[in-house]
Amino acid sequence: MLVWTALGLTLSLRLALALTRNGAERGPSASAPQGDLLFLLDSSASVSHYEFSRVREFLGQLAAPLPLGPGALHASLVHVGSRPYTEFPFGQHGSGAVVQDAIRAAAQRMGDTNTGLALAYVKEQLFDTAAGARSGVPKVLVWVTDGGSSDPVGPPMQELKDLGVTIFIISTGRGNRLELSAAASAPPEKHLHFVDVDDLHIIAQELRGSILEAMQPQQQLRASEVTSSGFRLAWPPLLTASSGYYVLELVTRAQPGVVRRQQLPGNTTEWVWAGLEPDTDYDVALVPESNERLVGPQHLRVRTLPEEAGPERIVISHARPRSVRVTWAPALGPAAALGYHVLYGPLQGGVAQRVEVPAGHNSTTLQGLSPGTLYLVTVTAAFRSGRERALSAKACTPPGERSRVPTLPDAGARGP
Protein backbone atom coordinates (compact mmCIF):
# COMPACT_ATOMS: atom_id res chain seq x y z
CA MET A 1 0.00 0.00 0.00
CA LEU A 2 2.80 2.42 0.89
CA VAL A 3 4.51 1.63 -2.41
CA TRP A 4 1.36 2.48 -4.40
CA THR A 5 0.86 5.69 -2.40
CA ALA A 6 4.43 6.81 -3.06
CA LEU A 7 4.07 5.95 -6.74
CA GLY A 8 0.82 7.96 -6.97
CA LEU A 9 2.44 10.99 -5.34
CA THR A 10 5.37 10.79 -7.77
CA LEU A 11 3.07 10.66 -10.79
CA SER A 12 1.01 13.58 -9.45
CA LEU A 13 4.12 15.70 -8.97
CA ARG A 14 5.37 14.89 -12.48
CA LEU A 15 1.96 15.78 -13.95
CA ALA A 16 1.88 19.08 -12.06
CA LEU A 17 5.37 19.96 -13.23
CA ALA A 18 4.48 19.12 -16.82
CA LEU A 19 1.36 21.29 -16.69
CA THR A 20 3.34 24.16 -15.20
CA ARG A 21 6.03 23.83 -17.88
CA ASN A 22 3.44 23.71 -20.66
CA GLY A 23 1.72 26.78 -19.24
CA ALA A 24 5.01 28.68 -19.13
CA GLU A 25 5.79 27.71 -22.74
CA ARG A 26 2.41 28.98 -23.86
CA GLY A 27 3.32 32.47 -22.59
CA PRO A 28 1.16 35.01 -20.78
CA SER A 29 -2.41 34.27 -19.80
CA ALA A 30 -5.40 35.48 -21.74
CA SER A 31 -5.91 38.29 -19.20
CA ALA A 32 -2.48 39.82 -20.00
CA PRO A 33 -2.57 43.24 -21.68
CA GLN A 34 -2.31 43.22 -25.45
CA GLY A 35 -0.62 45.79 -27.64
CA ASP A 36 2.25 46.69 -29.95
CA LEU A 37 5.22 48.39 -28.29
CA LEU A 38 7.85 50.06 -30.50
CA PHE A 39 11.18 51.31 -29.15
CA LEU A 40 12.69 54.15 -31.22
CA LEU A 41 16.40 54.36 -30.45
CA ASP A 42 18.67 57.25 -31.49
CA SER A 43 21.51 55.34 -33.13
CA SER A 44 23.07 58.26 -35.03
CA ALA A 45 26.58 59.63 -34.81
CA SER A 46 25.41 62.44 -32.50
CA VAL A 47 25.21 59.84 -29.72
CA SER A 48 28.47 58.69 -28.15
CA HIS A 49 29.21 54.98 -27.91
CA TYR A 50 28.97 55.22 -24.12
CA GLU A 51 25.53 56.89 -24.24
CA PHE A 52 24.29 54.36 -26.78
CA SER A 53 25.37 51.45 -24.59
CA ARG A 54 23.70 52.97 -21.51
CA VAL A 55 20.42 53.60 -23.36
CA ARG A 56 20.52 50.11 -24.88
CA GLU A 57 20.96 48.58 -21.42
CA PHE A 58 18.08 50.70 -20.08
CA LEU A 59 15.69 49.54 -22.82
CA GLY A 60 16.63 45.94 -22.16
CA GLN A 61 15.91 46.31 -18.44
CA LEU A 62 12.65 48.08 -19.28
CA ALA A 63 11.47 45.25 -21.53
CA ALA A 64 12.59 42.23 -19.50
CA PRO A 65 9.70 42.13 -16.95
CA LEU A 66 6.99 43.04 -19.48
CA PRO A 67 4.42 40.35 -20.42
CA LEU A 68 5.76 39.91 -23.96
CA GLY A 69 4.64 36.96 -26.03
CA PRO A 70 1.84 35.51 -28.16
CA GLY A 71 -1.53 36.87 -27.11
CA ALA A 72 0.10 39.64 -25.06
CA LEU A 73 2.55 42.44 -25.87
CA HIS A 74 4.65 42.43 -29.03
CA ALA A 75 7.81 44.55 -29.22
CA SER A 76 9.88 46.00 -32.06
CA LEU A 77 13.07 48.10 -32.15
CA VAL A 78 13.79 50.75 -34.81
CA HIS A 79 17.03 52.75 -35.09
CA VAL A 80 17.23 56.46 -35.94
CA GLY A 81 20.05 57.24 -38.39
CA SER A 82 20.46 58.50 -41.92
CA ARG A 83 17.72 56.01 -42.75
CA PRO A 84 15.54 54.08 -40.28
CA TYR A 85 16.46 50.48 -39.63
CA THR A 86 14.38 47.73 -37.97
CA GLU A 87 16.42 45.66 -35.51
CA PHE A 88 13.56 43.18 -35.02
CA PRO A 89 9.85 43.31 -36.00
CA PHE A 90 6.79 42.70 -33.85
CA GLY A 91 6.22 39.14 -32.70
CA GLN A 92 9.69 37.85 -33.55
CA HIS A 93 10.68 37.40 -29.89
CA GLY A 94 8.26 35.67 -27.53
CA SER A 95 9.41 36.75 -24.06
CA GLY A 96 10.83 39.72 -22.22
CA ALA A 97 14.15 37.98 -21.64
CA VAL A 98 14.61 37.26 -25.35
CA VAL A 99 13.71 40.85 -26.25
CA GLN A 100 16.24 42.07 -23.69
CA ASP A 101 18.96 39.94 -25.29
CA ALA A 102 18.03 41.22 -28.77
CA ILE A 103 18.23 44.86 -27.62
CA ARG A 104 21.60 44.27 -25.96
CA ALA A 105 22.91 42.79 -29.22
CA ALA A 106 21.87 45.82 -31.29
CA ALA A 107 24.78 47.69 -32.91
CA GLN A 108 24.90 51.47 -33.35
CA ARG A 109 24.04 52.48 -36.93
CA MET A 110 25.67 55.99 -36.94
CA GLY A 111 24.82 58.53 -39.68
CA ASP A 112 22.56 61.61 -39.46
CA THR A 113 19.79 62.09 -36.89
CA ASN A 114 16.79 61.93 -39.24
CA THR A 115 14.15 61.41 -36.55
CA GLY A 116 11.28 62.78 -38.65
CA LEU A 117 12.03 60.25 -41.38
CA ALA A 118 12.16 57.49 -38.76
CA LEU A 119 8.79 58.57 -37.31
CA ALA A 120 7.16 58.36 -40.74
CA TYR A 121 8.65 54.86 -41.05
CA VAL A 122 7.41 53.96 -37.55
CA LYS A 123 3.88 55.02 -38.52
CA GLU A 124 3.91 52.41 -41.28
CA GLN A 125 5.45 49.72 -39.06
CA LEU A 126 2.92 50.15 -36.24
CA PHE A 127 0.01 49.46 -38.59
CA ASP A 128 1.61 47.11 -41.12
CA THR A 129 0.67 43.45 -40.73
CA ALA A 130 3.76 42.50 -42.77
CA ALA A 131 5.85 43.97 -39.92
CA GLY A 132 3.94 41.87 -37.39
CA ALA A 133 1.61 44.68 -36.23
CA ARG A 134 -1.91 43.78 -35.16
CA SER A 135 -5.15 45.68 -35.72
CA GLY A 136 -7.42 46.58 -32.85
CA VAL A 137 -4.72 46.60 -30.14
CA PRO A 138 -3.20 49.62 -28.33
CA LYS A 139 -0.06 51.14 -29.88
CA VAL A 140 2.75 52.61 -27.77
CA LEU A 141 5.95 54.35 -28.94
CA VAL A 142 8.91 54.82 -26.58
CA TRP A 143 11.40 57.30 -28.09
CA VAL A 144 14.81 57.73 -26.45
CA THR A 145 16.73 60.75 -27.75
CA ASP A 146 19.66 63.00 -26.95
CA GLY A 147 17.45 65.95 -27.90
CA GLY A 148 18.59 66.75 -31.45
CA SER A 149 17.14 65.99 -34.89
CA SER A 150 18.22 66.89 -38.42
CA ASP A 151 14.61 67.12 -39.63
CA PRO A 152 11.25 68.22 -38.13
CA VAL A 153 9.55 65.79 -35.73
CA GLY A 154 6.34 67.72 -34.98
CA PRO A 155 4.17 66.83 -38.01
CA PRO A 156 4.93 63.05 -38.12
CA MET A 157 4.55 62.82 -34.33
CA GLN A 158 1.15 64.52 -34.52
CA GLU A 159 0.07 62.04 -37.20
CA LEU A 160 0.96 59.18 -34.86
CA LYS A 161 -1.06 60.73 -32.03
CA ASP A 162 -3.98 61.31 -34.39
CA LEU A 163 -3.94 57.56 -35.07
CA GLY A 164 -4.20 56.84 -31.34
CA VAL A 165 -0.54 56.00 -30.61
CA THR A 166 0.59 56.79 -27.05
CA ILE A 167 3.96 58.60 -27.17
CA PHE A 168 6.54 58.34 -24.37
CA ILE A 169 9.71 60.44 -24.77
CA ILE A 170 12.90 60.03 -22.73
CA SER A 171 15.46 62.81 -23.27
CA THR A 172 18.95 62.55 -21.84
CA GLY A 173 18.83 66.26 -21.06
CA ARG A 174 19.69 68.29 -24.16
CA GLY A 175 16.25 68.49 -25.78
CA ASN A 176 13.97 71.52 -26.01
CA ARG A 177 11.37 71.08 -23.28
CA LEU A 178 8.59 72.95 -25.08
CA GLU A 179 9.03 71.05 -28.34
CA LEU A 180 9.26 67.67 -26.64
CA SER A 181 6.25 68.46 -24.42
CA ALA A 182 4.23 69.15 -27.55
CA ALA A 183 5.46 65.92 -29.16
CA ALA A 184 4.70 63.62 -26.19
CA SER A 185 1.22 62.42 -25.35
CA ALA A 186 -0.76 64.48 -22.86
CA PRO A 187 -0.23 65.08 -20.05
CA PRO A 188 3.50 65.67 -20.66
CA GLU A 189 4.39 65.24 -16.99
CA LYS A 190 3.41 61.58 -17.37
CA HIS A 191 4.80 60.91 -20.85
CA LEU A 192 7.99 63.01 -20.96
CA HIS A 193 11.12 62.34 -18.88
CA PHE A 194 14.38 64.33 -18.76
CA VAL A 195 17.00 62.03 -17.23
CA ASP A 196 20.79 61.91 -17.26
CA VAL A 197 22.02 58.93 -19.21
CA ASP A 198 23.56 57.41 -16.06
CA ASP A 199 20.28 57.76 -14.13
CA LEU A 200 17.91 56.11 -16.60
CA HIS A 201 17.34 53.19 -14.26
CA ILE A 202 15.54 55.55 -11.86
CA ILE A 203 12.51 55.90 -14.16
CA ALA A 204 12.37 52.27 -15.36
CA GLN A 205 9.69 51.05 -12.94
CA GLU A 206 7.48 54.13 -13.34
CA LEU A 207 7.75 54.06 -17.12
CA ARG A 208 7.02 50.34 -17.25
CA GLY A 209 3.84 50.88 -15.22
CA SER A 210 2.74 53.71 -17.53
CA ILE A 211 3.29 51.52 -20.59
CA LEU A 212 1.19 48.71 -19.11
CA GLU A 213 -1.52 51.21 -18.21
CA ALA A 214 -1.58 52.49 -21.79
CA MET A 215 -1.91 48.91 -23.04
CA GLN A 216 -5.00 48.14 -20.96
CA PRO A 217 -8.16 47.85 -23.07
CA GLN A 218 -10.52 50.76 -22.49
CA GLN A 219 -14.10 49.75 -21.72
CA GLN A 220 -15.62 53.21 -21.59
CA LEU A 221 -16.12 56.21 -23.85
CA ARG A 222 -13.10 58.49 -23.45
CA ALA A 223 -11.74 61.76 -24.85
CA SER A 224 -8.19 62.64 -25.86
CA GLU A 225 -6.29 65.29 -27.83
CA VAL A 226 -8.50 68.03 -26.39
CA THR A 227 -7.86 71.45 -27.97
CA SER A 228 -9.68 74.78 -27.98
CA SER A 229 -11.75 73.75 -31.02
CA GLY A 230 -12.26 70.00 -30.71
CA PHE A 231 -11.36 66.60 -29.26
CA ARG A 232 -11.08 62.94 -30.22
CA LEU A 233 -13.53 60.34 -28.87
CA ALA A 234 -12.78 56.61 -28.64
CA TRP A 235 -14.72 53.63 -27.32
CA PRO A 236 -14.42 49.83 -27.25
CA PRO A 237 -15.92 47.73 -30.08
CA LEU A 238 -19.48 47.34 -28.77
CA LEU A 239 -21.03 46.44 -32.15
CA THR A 240 -20.01 45.13 -35.56
CA ALA A 241 -20.70 46.43 -39.04
CA SER A 242 -23.53 43.90 -39.43
CA SER A 243 -25.04 44.12 -35.94
CA GLY A 244 -25.94 47.83 -35.76
CA TYR A 245 -24.71 51.41 -35.78
CA TYR A 246 -23.85 54.26 -33.39
CA VAL A 247 -25.42 57.66 -32.87
CA LEU A 248 -23.15 60.30 -31.37
CA GLU A 249 -24.84 63.29 -29.75
CA LEU A 250 -23.09 66.51 -28.74
CA VAL A 251 -24.67 69.35 -26.79
CA THR A 252 -23.36 72.36 -24.87
CA ARG A 253 -24.54 73.13 -21.37
CA ALA A 254 -25.26 76.72 -22.46
CA GLN A 255 -27.60 75.52 -25.25
CA PRO A 256 -29.18 72.24 -24.12
CA GLY A 257 -31.78 72.37 -26.89
CA VAL A 258 -29.21 72.44 -29.71
CA VAL A 259 -28.01 68.90 -30.42
CA ARG A 260 -25.42 67.87 -33.00
CA ARG A 261 -25.77 64.25 -34.16
CA GLN A 262 -23.53 61.93 -36.13
CA GLN A 263 -24.43 58.40 -37.27
CA LEU A 264 -21.50 55.98 -37.55
CA PRO A 265 -21.15 52.33 -38.70
CA GLY A 266 -21.05 49.59 -36.09
CA ASN A 267 -17.37 48.84 -36.68
CA THR A 268 -16.34 52.42 -35.82
CA THR A 269 -14.43 52.96 -32.58
CA GLU A 270 -13.48 56.67 -32.75
CA TRP A 271 -14.61 60.06 -33.98
CA VAL A 272 -13.18 63.60 -33.96
CA TRP A 273 -15.43 66.54 -33.13
CA ALA A 274 -14.10 69.77 -34.67
CA GLY A 275 -15.24 73.37 -35.03
CA LEU A 276 -16.21 73.68 -31.36
CA GLU A 277 -16.18 76.72 -29.09
CA PRO A 278 -13.16 77.27 -26.80
CA ASP A 279 -13.41 77.00 -23.02
CA THR A 280 -16.82 75.29 -23.22
CA ASP A 281 -18.38 72.25 -21.52
CA TYR A 282 -19.79 69.64 -23.92
CA ASP A 283 -21.96 66.66 -23.01
CA VAL A 284 -21.37 63.66 -25.27
CA ALA A 285 -23.64 60.61 -25.62
CA LEU A 286 -22.70 57.43 -27.49
CA VAL A 287 -25.88 55.49 -28.31
CA PRO A 288 -25.41 51.98 -29.79
CA GLU A 289 -28.40 50.94 -31.94
CA SER A 290 -28.76 47.19 -32.52
CA ASN A 291 -31.57 44.73 -33.20
CA GLU A 292 -29.47 41.78 -32.02
CA ARG A 293 -28.65 42.80 -28.46
CA LEU A 294 -29.26 45.63 -26.04
CA VAL A 295 -26.22 47.84 -25.43
CA GLY A 296 -26.63 50.80 -23.10
CA PRO A 297 -25.55 54.32 -24.00
CA GLN A 298 -22.37 55.91 -22.59
CA HIS A 299 -22.01 59.53 -21.51
CA LEU A 300 -19.04 61.85 -21.11
CA ARG A 301 -18.45 65.53 -20.36
CA VAL A 302 -15.51 67.26 -22.05
CA ARG A 303 -14.33 70.85 -21.64
CA THR A 304 -12.42 72.41 -24.51
CA LEU A 305 -9.27 74.38 -23.78
CA PRO A 306 -9.25 78.19 -23.71
CA GLU A 307 -8.80 79.88 -27.05
CA GLU A 308 -5.32 79.53 -28.50
CA ALA A 309 -4.70 83.25 -28.75
CA GLY A 310 -1.07 84.23 -28.69
CA PRO A 311 0.42 87.50 -27.39
CA GLU A 312 -1.66 90.52 -28.46
CA ARG A 313 0.62 93.24 -27.16
CA ILE A 314 4.36 93.50 -26.41
CA VAL A 315 5.86 96.24 -24.22
CA ILE A 316 9.59 97.00 -24.16
CA SER A 317 10.76 98.71 -20.96
CA HIS A 318 13.75 99.21 -18.65
CA ALA A 319 16.03 99.64 -21.63
CA ARG A 320 19.69 99.55 -20.65
CA PRO A 321 22.78 99.49 -22.87
CA ARG A 322 23.00 95.71 -22.44
CA SER A 323 19.49 94.61 -21.42
CA VAL A 324 15.78 95.26 -21.97
CA ARG A 325 12.60 94.07 -20.29
CA VAL A 326 10.02 92.36 -22.53
CA THR A 327 6.40 92.06 -21.30
CA TRP A 328 3.42 90.72 -23.23
CA ALA A 329 -0.29 90.21 -22.73
CA PRO A 330 -2.36 88.25 -22.18
CA ALA A 331 -0.64 85.83 -19.82
CA LEU A 332 -1.70 82.26 -20.59
CA GLY A 333 -1.79 79.67 -17.81
CA PRO A 334 -0.54 76.06 -18.00
CA ALA A 335 -4.04 74.84 -18.91
CA ALA A 336 -3.97 76.88 -22.11
CA ALA A 337 -0.32 76.85 -23.21
CA LEU A 338 2.85 74.83 -22.75
CA GLY A 339 4.86 78.04 -22.46
CA TYR A 340 6.60 80.68 -24.54
CA HIS A 341 9.85 81.06 -26.37
CA VAL A 342 11.31 84.51 -26.99
CA LEU A 343 13.55 84.87 -30.04
CA TYR A 344 15.67 88.01 -30.40
CA GLY A 345 18.50 89.24 -32.60
CA PRO A 346 19.95 92.42 -34.17
CA LEU A 347 17.69 93.80 -36.88
CA GLN A 348 20.67 94.53 -39.14
CA GLY A 349 21.74 90.90 -39.03
CA GLY A 350 23.52 88.74 -36.51
CA VAL A 351 23.06 85.65 -34.35
CA ALA A 352 19.54 85.15 -32.97
CA GLN A 353 19.13 83.87 -29.42
CA ARG A 354 16.25 82.15 -27.67
CA VAL A 355 14.84 82.27 -24.14
CA GLU A 356 12.26 79.83 -22.76
CA VAL A 357 9.51 81.20 -20.47
CA PRO A 358 7.10 78.83 -18.66
CA ALA A 359 3.31 79.14 -18.96
CA GLY A 360 1.74 81.56 -16.49
CA HIS A 361 4.56 84.11 -16.89
CA ASN A 362 4.44 87.04 -19.30
CA SER A 363 7.77 88.81 -19.03
CA THR A 364 11.51 88.24 -19.23
CA THR A 365 14.70 90.30 -19.27
CA LEU A 366 16.99 89.92 -22.26
CA GLN A 367 20.61 90.11 -21.17
CA GLY A 368 23.96 90.44 -22.95
CA LEU A 369 22.78 92.91 -25.61
CA SER A 370 24.93 95.37 -27.52
CA PRO A 371 24.61 99.11 -26.73
CA GLY A 372 22.97 101.34 -29.32
CA THR A 373 21.51 98.42 -31.30
CA LEU A 374 18.03 97.83 -32.75
CA TYR A 375 16.68 94.33 -32.01
CA LEU A 376 13.72 92.35 -33.34
CA VAL A 377 11.96 90.46 -30.53
CA THR A 378 9.42 87.70 -31.28
CA VAL A 379 7.29 86.13 -28.53
CA THR A 380 5.73 82.78 -29.50
CA ALA A 381 3.11 80.90 -27.46
CA ALA A 382 3.27 77.10 -27.84
CA PHE A 383 0.01 75.21 -27.30
CA ARG A 384 -0.65 71.57 -26.41
CA SER A 385 -2.24 70.98 -29.82
CA GLY A 386 1.14 71.62 -31.44
CA ARG A 387 0.09 75.02 -32.83
CA GLU A 388 1.94 78.26 -32.15
CA ARG A 389 0.98 81.95 -32.09
CA ALA A 390 3.61 84.72 -32.37
CA LEU A 391 3.93 88.50 -32.19
CA SER A 392 7.00 90.67 -32.86
CA ALA A 393 8.23 94.07 -31.69
CA LYS A 394 11.38 96.18 -31.99
CA ALA A 395 13.62 97.04 -29.05
CA CYS A 396 16.48 99.55 -29.08
CA THR A 397 19.23 99.65 -26.49
CA PRO A 398 20.61 103.11 -25.60
CA PRO A 399 24.27 103.92 -26.33
CA GLY A 400 26.71 103.03 -23.58
CA GLU A 401 28.50 105.72 -21.59
CA ARG A 402 31.82 106.67 -23.11
CA SER A 403 34.69 106.08 -20.78
CA ARG A 404 36.57 109.25 -19.88
CA VAL A 405 40.31 109.09 -20.66
CA PRO A 406 42.34 111.44 -18.42
CA THR A 407 44.42 114.05 -20.32
CA LEU A 408 48.15 113.54 -19.79
CA PRO A 409 50.22 116.71 -19.19
CA ASP A 410 52.64 117.82 -21.93
CA ALA A 411 56.12 116.57 -21.17
CA GLY A 412 57.57 119.94 -22.10
CA ALA A 413 55.13 122.02 -20.10
CA ARG A 414 56.37 123.77 -17.05
CA GLY A 415 54.41 124.72 -14.01
CA PRO A 416 54.11 128.26 -12.68
UniProtKB/TrEMBL annotation:
InterPro entries: ECM_Assembly_Org (IPR050525), FN3_dom (IPR003961), FN3_sf (IPR036116), Ig-like_fold (IPR013783), VWF_A (IPR002035), vWFA_dom_sf (IPR036465). PROSITE patterns: FN3, VWFA. Residues 1-18 form the signal peptide. Residues 36-211 form the VWFA domain. The keyword Ligase does not apply. Residues 393-416 are annotated as: Disordered. Homodimer or homomultimer; disulfide-linked. Interacts with HSPG2. Promotes matrix assembly. Involved in the organization of skeletal muscles and in the formation of neuromuscular junctions. This is von Willebrand factor A domain-containing protein 1. It comes from Chrysochloris asiatica. The gene is VWA1.
